[in-house]
Amino acid sequence: MYNALLFLFGAGLAAALATMIILHKVSPGLSETALARFLARAKDAAGLHGLVNVLVTSSQELRSLNRRFRGKDRPTDVLSFPPEFGGGDFAGDVAISLEIARQNARRLDHSVADELKILVLHGVLHLAGHDHESDYGEMARLETRLRKKLKLPVALIERAEADGGKGAGQRARKRAPARRRRAR
């Protein structure tokens, strides 16, 4: 299917169309197409290959996922789920809380659409194998560089550090214990 999309629409749009964006929660100025296009740019910037699905949903759903895959009974802003076995053309899933994205956007005085892009970028970097919990600042530096390249406001890790290690989503370690599918 991807090759047919590539032929019909070109590389950027084909990647966007071959990706699944699910908006369980909607926000003005946000569209599946715009988020899919940004996702394609973020994957390219991060050097991530393969399909990525993005779910924008409620804090309640993120709390449930966080509890199930990480053993933490609280909502969080973003979770990344790399493929369980190899993955092939599949790079993983990213789940985002729209409520926490709205809170962050309001608190940091930028749009909800920009906040969702920041969270998508953060999730993509985790899917690409980066881990800010153990890489001595490497992911933070990369996220800062890519945020500037993609013309986004303050990066997720930067503001978590400015908040004393915890942001609006109570940023904490995003890896799941070794159960079923792991979240990052």
Computed CA radius of gyration, to the nearest angstrom: 15 Å
Main β-sheet, spatial strand arrangement: 1-2-4-3
Number of H- or I-type helical stretches: 8
CATH topology: Collagenase (Catalytic Domain)
Q: Give me the CATH superfamily.
A: Metalloproteases ("zincins"), catalytic domain
pLDDT below 50 for ≥5 consecutive residues: which ranges? 1-17, 166-180
Mean pLDDT: 80
Major β-sheet annotation:
4 strands, mixed
> How would you classify the helix and strand content by structural class?
alpha/beta
Number of separate structural domains: 1
CATH class: Alpha Beta
The CATH architecture name reads 3-Layer(aba) Sandwich
Count of DSSP E strands?
4
N-to-C SSE string, H for helix and E for strand: HHEHEHEEHHHH
Describe this structure in words.
Helix 3 packs across helix 6. Strands 1-2-4-3 form a four-stranded mixed β-sheet, with helices on both faces. The radius of gyration is 15 Å and the shape is globular. The chain has 184 residues and is an alpha/beta fold.
